[in-house]
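To: structure subgroup
Subject: Chain for Friday's discussion

All,

I'm putting the inputs and outputs inline so they're searchable in the archive.
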Amino acid sequence: MKKPYLIALILTLPFVSVFGQDETLYPWTDIQGRTLQASFISYDDVAQTVTIKWNGNIFPLPLNTLSVPSQQLAKQLGAPAPTPPPQPSSSPFDEVVAAMPTDALGPEALDIEHDWSSADGRPLAAKFISLVGDQLTIAMNGGEKEFTLPLSKFSDESQALAKVLQAVAKKFRPAPPKKSSVASAAKKPVKVVPPKVVEADLDKTHTWTSADGRSLEAKFVSADENGVELKMRGRPMNLSWSKLDPQSVALGKALQQLAKSLIPTILGGKENILERYGSGKWRNYNTVFESKAFEVGLNAIVSSQPTVHIWMLEDDGSRVQKNPITIRFEPRYNKGTMRKVKSFDESPPVSKDRRVTTLKGKWNNGATFEYSFEFSDSGVSVWGEAKESSSEEFPTFNLPLLLTSPNVVPDSKNATEETIMKVSGNGMLKFDPVEGKSDKFFLNEKWTDVQASLKKRETSNILKKAEFNGLPFGAHKIRVEPKNTRNSVMSWAKPYGGMFPIQGTHILLRSIDGYEARQPGVINRTDFKDRLEISRSGALVVKVYKGI
């Protein structure tokens, strides 16, 4: 086992010209090629870690995360210094310890584990707690276990290490002045103001201080009336409230209360309403998914057909656009009247991690349906089918999926050009038609101008893919396309009554039979047997790209 850096410093002290810890900065490069400048602290050959100091903080790094040159540098710097000849004293280290300057080590030496060894050579990794007389107290497993043993039970090196750390503790952990019992009894308890915490604090690393003044860096996991559970370097740690100082107790209880407040209530489903969150951010949603680039939710309140909402996200997690992109099925009949969901067979439970949610039920004309919604880090996919009686008096034309871009200017018809430009900026819809050249139009262009331009270019509205990007969508690109053009037909159109395309561009996806059944002059739509189906292989796919 390699000597800990404190022992190495002690052993080499008579040979260095400048006392104190080496603050030389070395380049450390990980296996991904990223480099930072930090000073070397120690190297552990058994644990295969190197400890560095960067920006005043101590970090242990697994050796296998570093490049080969950095691994070699760690081993070179961690090589033990030559042992000086034994001195005629009770311990060969006593004179070196006596010569140790008081400012040679910083308080970080008290917060890391060191390599100790027993008198008979058995190794042990532990943090220094205290040395009182000849009784040495050390802690293992991140402070979970403490042991007090006679100093004579340790090797000469470990005894020297204990004495050096005792001097460091006296400097950086001075004992509080003793108070008389009368004064202590009369002293009122210190009132601690509970800290203000927000949701992001639940994922942060906090500094926790023990009742006797020791500190550690750890994340909050949970808490109850007995104490708090923390996680330090991936390892769980349970501490009773009595082990923490008042400020840390206040922090733990504030985080506990915050965590409780963020647990939403859940409401049961009804005939045409899904089980849903009854409170919190996702109130009235059944299935939700949150990625770093976007978030999506399946609305549980169904006015006609189930609706999916998609928001782009800023780096801080806030939503880019006020209004979401929407996706829903639009089955219509008899001059365009839409079928409505009458009931669901059953409601899936609410979820924030389910990938595919399938809904089954009946329309208001008795037809059955099955819709599927898939949420993942890359985006959203939707497909489904319906089965309608052949005796239906007014057969449903087809089963289109409708994606609508957000209405970024609520009243664009009456808005000034300045207002429209400010909100829409460089926002645009780009599309790649099946026939003709790729084209685009900006979201602040009037529909009459766009229509004239498209007519002049003879551009088809049948698309291979479409893409939204620009100011209203932040640093995102939203690509819309059928999963397989052999099974589906995708088209686009302006919304009804919209002067500007920013009033909500329509992207429609139908099966090939569904597209043909909707053409003018078709008399018997039931001849197109797959008109009420969008297969999984021909699903509507929405992919979100950020920062490219």
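Points worth raising on Friday:
Confidence is low (pLDDT under 50) at residues 1-21, 181-186.
Residues 298 and 510 are 21 Å apart (CA to CA).

D.
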